[in-house]
Amino acid sequence: MGAKSSKVVSEAPSSRSSFERMASVRDYFTARITPLEDVTPPAPPLVVVLRGHTKFVTDVVELADSRIASASEDRTIRVWSLAEDGTADGKPDVLSGHTDAVRCLVALKDGRLASGSRDKTVRIWDISENPTAPIILKGHEGYVWKLAELADGRLASGSWDKTIRIWDLSGDAAPLVVPHGDAVRGMLALKDGRLATGGGKDGMINVWNVDSQSCTKALELASHPKYVAALAELPGQRLAAGGGDAGRRGEGFHIRIFDLNDGPHQAPKVLRGRADVWSLVTLD
Prior knowledge:
Layout lengths: L7 E2 L12 E4 L3 E4 L24 E6 L5 E5 L4 E4 L12 E3 L6 E6 L5 E5 L4 E4 L9 E3 L6 E6 L5 E5 L3 E5 L8 E4 L4 E6 L5 E5 L4 E7 L4 E8 L4 E8 L3 E7 L10 E5 L9 E3 L13
Antiparallel strand pairs: 1-2, 2-3, 4-5, 5-6, 6-7, 8-9, 9-10, 10-11, 12-13, 13-14, 14-15, 16-17, 17-18, 18-19, 20-21, 21-22, 22-23
């Protein structure tokens, strides 16, 4: 046999299982076949189903203590405790008080939970072992659709009344009211301290500089022709925006990726699809 031959060397069959045999291709590689009986199949992923809401679940967030909070159109928030193995006891704490569907949640850095509702209010919940009554923030004249905690600890809320309101979480001070071009459907606190918002039929994304006294528009980006519903920050100071509704015409262009360091007339990267995008999440 020459040095460059590639014949397969094999032994005569024996009583041992063919899965226990080894095949080798001379001078090039060796392949080993592992007996099937020695292979342990991977365990199926653990799926925990949390039941209790009576209508659509609209938002879910992880809390600082590893509990999970869920919001629903049934007007409640449920706070679920998970065991170390990921299972739940099915007995959540139920937070009641909103008089219409709860649309959005934010887990605050101080351990509290913020919620926004179609009842036009924002509520700040104490979810400790000895909770106090929630703080109710009133002022919006339309559904509260999105919330975002700012770098300085204040809370921004976006509404269908075409405004952004920035609240002191004590509830003692009047909010800063910022006009918005259309209903606010998407809102995101950026890592550099700015606030990004997207909205209704104007199809625009706005990036705001926020300080203790003002909220001024720093950048305006033309995005989707109908509406912007979801925003997510990507590495490298990029912003992904999702929305619609081009999917009804069979050609989506529902995720656009912008450079936050570029100007307003940039050409974003377009990820095409055939359905509207209502939520975006970046994975670590």
